[in-house]
Amino acid sequence: MEDENNTFDPDLIHAIFKLVWTRRALERERNDVADALDCEVGAGTSKKNRQTSANGKAIKLSCELLRIFITEAVQRAATISEAEGASKIEATHLERILPQLLLDF
Amino acid sequence: MEKAMDVEMEREEEEEEETESVSDVLRDRFRLSTVSIAEAEAKRNGMEISEPIVACISDLAFKYAAEQLAKDLELFAQHASRKIVKMEDVILSAHRNEHLATSLRSLCDDLKAKEPQSERKRKKTPRKENKATTSVVHIPDN
Fold first, then answer.
1. Those residues with Cβ within 8 angstroms of residue A5's Cβ, 6 or more apart along the chain or in another chain
2. What CA–CA distances, in Å, run from A4 to A1, A9, B11, B14?
3. What pairs with residue A89 in β-bridges?
4. Of A54, A55, A71, whose CA–CA distance to A8 is shortest?
């Protein structure tokens, strides 16, 4: 029950990944078209550019990775705000932990 | 010729607008999940968390997911000459942080361990059916 509430929806993460991958595939295609116009060779490139997709378990694992990112951010900020004697996590607390957090992911 | 180019340009612009609105919807859905995760985590730590901070963390995580993770996964899969992203790619994307990589690896093992069980279950059901049929066959014998 708790797990269900506190992880990302795999479908959502998959949709985000798909969006990025389609965008990149389109970009690549466009570059290829430009290349083909330049050197007039370019048959059969569409197959090479087929879009990336993902394994269901890989998506689940990515959900966990993102969940850890969030919990880690909150936990570290909570530690700082506790040290400062505050009861609410504020922007300054997040600012303090941000550099190391971004280095860790 | 020029008209054709214009039409093409317009279509591309429309496509871009469309993907933008799609990504906005995804970003909002992502934020909703983040809010519940972050608030639960803050509660666990006996802390309150203000809303703009959660929104900020959510945007960070979304950017991390969409701009880094997705690209990394695609590149890792391509490097292994695959079109499909596998769990090892996800673990590889966390290679800079040993703790993270280890915990992901253990989760990966858990997921792998779950898989054969479900296959066994699938195998079990036809056996039951076989038993049922044999028992049906046995009844006229009695």
1. B36, B40
2. 5, 9, 40, 37
3. B49
4. A71
Q: Are B65 and A66 in contact (CB under 8 A)?
A: yes
Test the A interface: residue of B39, B60, B104 with most A CBs within 10 Å: B60
Asked if the model's pLDDT at residue B139 lies above 60, the reply is no
Q: Out of A8, A55, A88, whose CB is closest to B86?
A: A55
Mean pLDDT of B96-116: 89
Per-residue pLDDT tens for A39-66?
655 444 555 567 889 999 999 999 999 9
- By Cβ distance, the residue of A66, A88, A104 closest to B61 is A66
The answer to whether the predicted template modeling score (pTM) of the entire model surpasses 0.90 is: no
**CA–CA separation, B106 vs B119, rounded Å?**
21
Q: What is the ipTM of this complex?
A: 0.81
